[in-house]
């Protein structure tokens, strides 16, 4: 005949077992020690509070274990529940061979040429929209162009001066606009593969609005004259036009696979036996 289970106190307790009672005093002690050291770099009152909590946590913790350890009676089931599963076998990823353990997203990216094409196309559309704004505002075609380069020419103060043709301002504005368009286009080419489902929503609306908000907050520091004269609704429209066109152009380019499928030796340029890619049609059976 089997004997009844004994608790840590030596008492017979059928169907239950005594375990150490839960206590929050260790957390209080740890928090008090943290405040005690935090007060060294903040305030003496923080250290005093930490010392009080640490002392209280220590006393409370010792009272829970000395002179008699506190226990809690926990019921025990006669038989543990059986674990059942509908998948007795482990599924294997068929295509993951070699050193590849976990895929890094995105699996495919756009080439640099895609970002360049998208940036140039978006830059053309943005320039056209800016010229339309100059005509609609009756300031002239050269007004938005000179406004972009006005930070380099502090002598241009009046509207008539900004609306006149200046070949040096045209050159500076063209360089600034071209470089900015190429950089943003490259950024689109790098980020759009991470959002494959709605690239136009990201590139055409979300990114331009975020970019416009960032410029609105720092333009007073970067270029105060431009900040006083810029028409923000038209600026946002130009940004959205750039984003939609650049997003469409980039998303229609052919993607290329990343090198994560290649063995490390192949990525490092080591020419040796067994370094070729075997994940696709070249994979050995």
Explained architecture:
There is one protein chain. The protein has 285 residues and is mainly alpha-helical. It folds into two domains: 17-75; 108-257, no CATH class. It has helices spanning 25-38, 44-65, 112-136, 142-148, 159-163, 167-191, 199-222, 224-229, 232-251, 264-267, and strands spanning 16-20, 71-75, 108-109, 256-257. The strands form two sheets. A two-stranded antiparallel sheet has the order 1-2. A two-stranded antiparallel sheet has the order 3-4. Helix 1 runs antiparallel to helix 2 (44-65), helix 3 crosses helix 6 (167-191) and helix 3 (112-136) runs antiparallel to helix 9 (232-251). The protein is elongated, with a radius of gyration of 34 Å. The chain starts with 15 loop residues before the first strand and ends in an 18-residue tail after the last helix.
Strand content: under 5%
Shape: elongated
Order of helices and strands: EHHEEHHHHHHHEH
Secondary structure tally: strands: 4
Compose a concise summary of this entry.
The protein has ten helices and four strands. With 285 residues, it is mainly α.
Question: Could you list some keywords that capture this structure?
Answer:
single chain, 285 residues, mainly alpha, 2 domains, two-stranded antiparallel ribbon, 10 helices, 4 strands, disordered C terminus
